[in-house]
Design a protein that fits this description.
By secondary structure, this protein is an alpha+beta fold. 21% of the residues lie in helices and 32% in strands. It has a 4-stranded antiparallel β-sheet with strand order 2-1-4-3. A hairpin with a 5-residue loop joins strand 3 and strand 4. The longest helix is centred in the middle third of the chain and has 9 residues.
């Protein structure tokens, strides 16, 4: 199954995750946090903090990820993933 169809399709009882990565300049370990969700991606995305940014919502729907860099040079990467990851938020 292609990645695009994988994003659109959902199996009852299947948990997927919105994974949020913060990648600091000069640091090799990103901070990672996840939000689990069940159900279609299009139903869950409007409930997230990205609902007011059309470009980020479109990228998440079509590509399964979106990325941007803030004014401090920190890279923000958000992905739709199938597997849980350990939370490493705020730890160095």
């Amino acid at each position: 199954m292609s990645k695009k169809s994988r994003l659109k399709n959902w199996t009852l009882g299947e948990t997927r995750y919105i994974t949020y990565y913060l990648i600091f300049p000069g640091d090799d370990k990103p901070w990672v946090d996840q939000i689990p969700f069940n159900g279609p991606l299009d139903t869950f995305l409007p409930l997230t903090r990205f609902n007011n940014d059309f470009t980020k919502m479109t990228d998440l729907r079509t590509k399964g990820e979106t990325t941007w860099k803030d004014h401090n040079g920190v890279t923000h990467l958000v992905k739709v993933e199938d597997k849980p990851k350990p939370r490493t938020w705020g730890t160095k």
